[in-house]
Design goal:
8 helices; 0% strand; 183 residues; single chain; mainly alpha
Length: 183
């Protein structure tokens, strides 16, 4: 039996607002890409652009720890993982296409998140607005985080659909093994 919980009107309104904002941002012209390149060059953690990917990634704070893990290639480009889960070139190409599309599509929401977070930090530091205004600004920040999180979830599901059940199991085992080794 499928149970469907009706959404209150405000939830529907918020969802439509987030969807509209996403579509407006995605419809923006090349100015978004230019801003993103500038932000990436400034070193923002969320702006992992193509130009930055070609450079050496910034060192992590915990990289001074003995045995700290170094950033690794995406799983579909890592020769050891490719061999272990028997990833085909066709699968790797499809996964890379999904990854690149998401990266391009989420550039605007990532920029908007940074903008809204900066505004929230400014408001908090100035202490000149009421609690209700802080709440509304926090909602704006969380709406952008939700857009990015939803996009990531959809991307990961698309990965799972490309991989066979055995490959998914193998990949999860690799990630679990890596997680245990980092502890």
């Amino acid at each position: 039996m499928k149970v469907q919980i009706p959404l209150p009107p405000i939830a529907r309104t918020i969802w439509l607002g987030v969807l509209t904002l996403t579509l407006v941002v995605l419809a923006a012209d090349g100015r978004v890409a230019t801003i993103a390149r500038d932000e990436a060059a400034a070193g923002h953690k969320w702006a992992w652009s193509t130009s930055q990917r070609k450079q050496t990634p910034p060192p992590h704070q915990d990289s001074q720890r003995p045995g700290a893990s170094q950033p690794r290639a995406p799983f579909w480009k890592d020769p050891a993982i490719i061999k272990e889960i028997k990833l085909t070139p066709d699968q790797a190409a499809k996964i890379d296409a999904v990854w690149r599309k998401r990266e391009q599509d989420m550039l605007g929401p990532a920029l908007e998140l940074a903008k809204q977070e900066t505004e929230l930090k400014r408001m908090l530091a100035e202490r000149k607005v009421g609690v209700d205004v802080i709440g509304m600004q926090s909602d704006r920040v969380e709406a952008q985080r939700t857009v990015l999180a939803k996009s990531r979830t959809i991307m990961l599901y698309q990965f799972w659909l490309i991989l066979s059940p055995g490959q998914n199991t193998g990949l999860r085992a690799i990630w679990e093994r890596d997680r245990r080794e980092r502890r």
